[in-house]
Structure formats: structure tokens, C-alpha cells
Write a structure and sequence with these properties.
The chain is mainly α. The protein is built from six helices and no strands. The longest helix is centred in the N-terminal third of the chain and has 47 residues, at 2-48. The protein is flat and about 60 Å long.
Length: 188
């Protein structure tokens, strides 16, 4: 049964992903209407802007960014420790932190995977209009074998007592007949 669950989870994940995509796609018409409503005002604002003012503003921002990068670079170079042993320990510490972060992200990814799979399972149930677990139970249920009738010599009064005392029937396996071997004459 565990194998079936292992096979179902990716399928439920795919169904959940599809359902979430549909939910997001349903939001697109509203966004398009919003953009269409805002577009004339934005286009008008772009037409009214002076290209020279925009160019000056971009140049000022570029100069500020260049100054910030240079100061940060100078700060990093100034703080750089030349002690190789300390740099090695720092590198090892960073590597261990990286492994920890990777493990944390793996756990978070697994949790999200399980959430989306659970969402997919609910979506499949909703799409079917029935509970999927009932279908699984029906597929697993095996009808019991009929109870053997008591001998005709017993009276009808003894039959209910015999049925009450009879243990639950167990599944009996029957020996399979061996497959007939083909002979050389049969093959021709």
C-alpha cells in the first residue's frame, strides 16, 4: 500500500500545481482590466516628461551608485584580514553555514511539496465530486468467501448455532496447474 501512496503523491502534486495555476490564471482578466484602466494615464505621463530631465535623473543615480560601490569596495578591502588561518576558519564556517542553509531549504521544499500534494488531493476530490478515499477502500475490500452450509442431517435449530460458532473464513490459496510444455510436434 505504501508503494501506491508513493505513486499518488507526485500525481497529487501535479494536480495541485495545475489547480494553483488555474487559480492564478483566473486573476489575469482582472489584472488586464486594471492595466487597461491605468494605461492612458501612464502613457500621457510618459509623453509629458522631458527626456532631458529623465537623462539627468539617471545620470545622478548612476553617480550615486558608483560612489556607493567604491566606498563599499574600499571598506571591504580595508577590513580584509590577511591572517590566512583566520580566513581558512572563516571559509570553513561559511561552508558549514551553506550546508545548514541547504538542508533548511530542502526541508522547506519538502514541506511545500507536501502542501501542494495535499492541495492536489483536495482538488482531485473536488473534481471528482466524491471522496477519493472511498474509492480506495472499495478497491481494497475483498469480499469474504461464502460460509459452507452445514450438513443436511442437522436440524434447522442447530444451523444458527453452527453459523455463530463458525470462525471467520480465511482466504484459501489453490494450487496452480503447471503449464503444459510444448512438444516439438506441436511447434511445427
Amino acid at each position: 500500500m505504501a508503494i501506491i501512496e508513493e505513486l499518488r503523491t507526485p500525481l497529487y502534486f501535479a494536480a495541485g500545481t495545475a489547480d494553483l495555476a488555474v487559480q492564478q490564471a483566473k486573476k489575469v482578466p482582472g489584472l488586464i482590466e486594471q492595466i487597461a484602466a491605468e494605461a492612458p494615464a501612464r502613457i500621457d505621463a510618459v509623453r509629458k516628461t522631458d527626456p532631458k530631465a529623465v537623462q539627468d535623473k539617471v545620470a545622478d543615480r548612476a553617480k550615486e551608485a558608483q560612489a556607493t560601490v567604491q566606498s563599499k569596495f574600499a571598506e571591504v578591502v580595508g577590513n580584509l584580514d590577511t591572517d590566512l588561518k583566520k580566513l581558512g576558519e572563516t571559509a570553513q564556517d561559511l561552508a558549514l553555514r551553506g550546508v545548514g542553509v541547504a538542508a533548511e531549504y530542502a526541508v522547506k521544499a519538502r514541506e511545500k511539496y507536501e502542501e501542494v500534494a495535499a492541495h492536489g488531493e483536495e482538488a482531485v476530490k473536488a473534481w471528482r465530486g466524491e471522496v477519493a478515499e472511498e474509492i480506495t477502500e472499495i478497491a481494497v475490500v475483498v469480499e469474504p468467501e461464502p460460509v459452507a452450509k452445514p450438513a443436511a442431517a442437522e436440524s434447522k435449530a442447530e444451523q444458527p448455532a453452527a453459523k455463530a460458532e463458525a470462525p471467520k473464513p480465511t482466504r484459501k490459496t489453490t494450487a496452480r496447474k503447471p503449464v503444459a510444455k510444448k512438444t516439438a510436434a506441436a511447434e511445427k
